[in-house]
From TrEMBL:
Keyword terms: Leucine-rich repeat, Repeat
Protein name: LRR repeats and ubiquitin-like domain-containing protein At2g30105 isoform X1
Organism per entry: Spinacia oleracea
PROSITE patterns (alphabetical): LRR (PS51450), UBIQUITIN_2 (PS50053)
A Pfam family annotated for this UniProt entry: LRR_14
């Protein structure tokens, strides 16, 4: 799929090298260098005006954003600190202290990670940190419920959270309070214990600018019709659940670019899927599909389609003819053979596109002799 690596509001993970240690953190790409320095104050005990941040040999400017500073996911930044510019509790020392609600873990590669201790009430400084970065990162925090302090990050428009990551916890309920986070653009709820009756869809559908929603690896058996109210949604991930169908209101999601519903129990796709005219990538692999609606041929921007491990007997007759950007099709173990593909109108043009993409991939890897994958099973 040919989508830009960086989009507005994307979260990037940073590695800050300081005093022989590595501090890991996540921030939005439209955060400023000044925001980063403010966040580092709590971890290093160094005032922002005493911090000099260096990336690729250049000193970072406070007013610039991470994006304009060419800082990307995984970037390494060196922090140099001026002596004497310490906070009120004492002078800066080489091994900077961290907030009392964090514990310090040394990984196998000797890098340092600060892990929140959630057994005690969250400090005001932690909420302040969320508001500065606009990222609420609570993945892998052993949570059974969403902390009440999270809702405070939706109370003021200037510092509202844009990203909420609650993945890999034990959360059961998504309460009505979720509607407080009116500026949320990315909501990640993967690998929890969420079921149909534990989600307040009334609250969730109030998030009018939500662009990314992920419920992967939960216990959902259906998606409600109210899903259609999330008209700003660009990505919907609901893989590894127990879904049997999709609501017809999914056709209202005209901004949707990526749809991943693989590893469910879906037996049919509603014909209104053809109204999702922005779709670029669709993954419906490992379901119970017997056919696809003919309206798939309306998806003229479609580039990637995964249908493997289903029970298909045919493909839409206009798929290759109308989906003129389609270049990746995976239908292994789906009931469709290569001979069947060759008989569909538009096959020749589709075959040229996928072979061209395959060749570009080989060229990018400096040549190679990997066998071309036909995408389907032989007769």
């Amino acid at each position: 799929m040919e989508i830009a690596d960086e989009v507005p509001g994307e979260t990037v993970k940073l590695q800050i090298k300081f005093g022989g240690e590595t501090i890991r953190m996540s921030m939005l790409t439209d955060s400023t260098i000044a925001d980063l320095k403010e966040l580092l104050k709590s971890s290093t005990n160094v005032l922002p005006r005493g911090q000099k941040l260096i990336h690729k040999g250049k000193v970072l400017i406070d007013s610039n954003t991470l994006r304009t500073s060419e800082i990307k996911n995984g970037s390494k930044i060196m922090l140099m600190a001026a002596e004497g510019l310490h906070q009120g509790e004492g002078p800066r020392i080489k091994n900077a202290s961290v907030l009392s609600n964090y514990r310090k873990i040394t990984n196998a590669d000797r890098t340092i990670k600060f892990v929140p201790i959630l057994a005690t009430p969250m400090a005001d400084s932690r909420i302040k940190r969320w508001k500065i970065t606009r990222v609420i990162g609570l993945a892998e925090s052993n949570l059974k419920a969403i902390p009440e302090e999270v809702w405070e990050c939706g109370s003021s428009s200037g510092s509202c959270a844009k990203v909420l990551d609650l993945s890999n916890n034990f959360i059961r309920d998504i309460p009505i309070n979720i509607s407080c986070l009116t500026r949320i653009e990315k909501l990640i709820l993967n690998s929890n214990e969420i079921s149909d009756d534990s989600v307040s869809w009334e609250g969730l559908t109030q998030l009018k600018i939500l662009k990314y929603l992920s419920f992967d690896k939960n216990n959902l058996t259906y998606l409600p019709s109210s899903l259609g109210a999330l008209t700003s949604l660009e990505q919907l991930h609901v893989a590894d659940n127990k879904l049997e169908t999709l609501p017809i209101e999914i056709g209202l999601l005209t901004q949707l670019e990526i749809l991943k519903v693989n590893n469910n129990r879906i037996i049919a796709i509603p014909s209104c899927i053809g109204d999702c005219s922005s779709l670029v990538e669709v993954d419906i692999s490992s379901n119970l599909l017997g056919e696809l609606p003919e309206t798939f041929g309306n998806l003229q921007k479609l580039k990637v389609l995964h249908l493997n491990h289903n029970g298909l007997e045919s493909l839409p007759s206009t798929l290759f003819k109308n989906c003129v950007e389609l270049s990746t099709l995976n239908i292994h173990k789906a009931g469709i053979t290569t001979d069947m593909l060759h008989k569909i109108e538009g096959w020749e043009d589709f075959d040229k596109r996928r072979r061209l993409k395959y060749q570009k991939q080989l060229d990018f890897r400096a040549g190679g002799s990997a066998e071309f994958d036909e995408g389907a099973d032989q007769n």
